[in-house]
Design brief:
single chain, about 140 residues, alpha+beta, 4-stranded antiparallel beta sheet, globular
Length: about 140
């Protein structure tokens, strides 16, 4: 309980989920994932800490993986693809209750995209990146 209060003090009251990478089903690693209503943070390390963040509206795809070793202990991995220039791929490795985490993440991403009026095609740029690559000049003379 004290840990949750500490996280809320650092990351704000809009904390939606926090979890650790599990080893053999136990959250004993030094990798922590923190999901707020606007940002997903990855914090790695003990003495020297590295923190990375992805704004939720930049997430474009989510894939869940359940390797046998993780499945046995009730864990899974969520592979995120984003339009973030620093972190185009992010793995939430070996987390407990991955389906519940994905549902919370899906809802938070949807809220942020609605807030910024962003749709999937806006992130990919489907309509704006159409180019004529067939080397004809479209002249039918």
């Amino acid at each position: 309980m004290a840990n949750l209060k500490k996280l809320k003090k650092i990351y704000g009251d809009d904390l939606l989920w926090s979890g650790k990478k599990c080893i053999c089903g136990l959250p004993i690693s030094f990798t922590r994932y923190i999901l707020t209503s606007t940002v997903l943070y990855t914090r790695v390390g003990f003495l020297s800490v590295k923190e990375d963040e992805i704004e939720l509206y930049k997430i474009v795809d989510k894939v869940m993986e359940f390797p046998l070793g993780q499945r046995i202990v009730g864990c899974g991995t969520i592979n995120l693809t984003s339009k973030d220039s620093d972190t185009p791929q992010k793995l939430l490795k070996a987390i407990k209750k991955p389906r519940e985490v994905k549902r919370v993440l899906d809802e938070a991403v949807k809220v942020q995209r609605d807030k910024y009026l962003i749709r999937g095609r806006d992130m990919v740029g489907a309509a704006s990146d159409i180019h004529d690559h067939d080397d004809d000049n479209d002249n039918d003379n």
